[in-house]
Amino acid sequence: MHxxxxxxxxxxxxxxxDVVDFSHPLxxxxxxxxxxxxxxxxxxxxxxFEFVRDHIAHSWDIQSTTVTCHASEVLLHREGICYxxxxxxxxxxxxxxxxxxxxxxxxxxxDTPDQGYCLHALNAVYFRSLRxxxxxxxxxxxxxxxxxxxxxxxxxxxxxxxxxxxxxxxxIYVKPDAGTIKTLQTYKNAxxxxxYGLPDRLSTSELSSAPAAANGHAAPI
Length: 221
Prior knowledge:
Elements: E1 4-5, H1 25-35, H2 41-55, E2 57-58, H3 71-77, E3 79-80, H4 82-94, E4 100-108, E5 117-127, E6 132-136, E7 167-168, E8 171-172, H5 178-186, H6 190-197
Helix pairs in contact: 1-4, 2-4, 3-4
């Protein structure tokens, strides 16, 4: 898929935000531990991706009621749904001045269209050495879900099925979608949020701010 950056400025994908709070001491300490003997952007990205994928639990998978949102909060509790996990991967890599954005898919929430749809969040990383963006999905693996770090061919958690109304959005956003963050900040019970509160559409028009050219199923969220 042809990816479309929302902004042509890579610096925009390095900004700290309220939820991508990479100056927080816990983010800084985790980054120091993860990257202390790594130099290349590729090695750092692979390490961060596998850490978030494998060591931050997916709240639905472990049937936890805890809701996390800010990257530092996700690290503290070591769990979150995909919106939260995308925040922490972005924070870890932006702390290393590696540009990271947010991407979305519209997926069936469970197994069939009649059970509803939801937005699924993942990240896109810009590799200066490759001069292109690469999408990575740190949602967390389980039977039937096997996302991998790959620079050549995308190995995401969920292949989109257009015949079932699913959709892959091409825009790489600078910030997380506002609707996904509002959901995380509104609900107090992650299981209720997952069943009844996940947005199924982006809060803004998909192509409203994207330039014309660019570089470069159970429980999906």
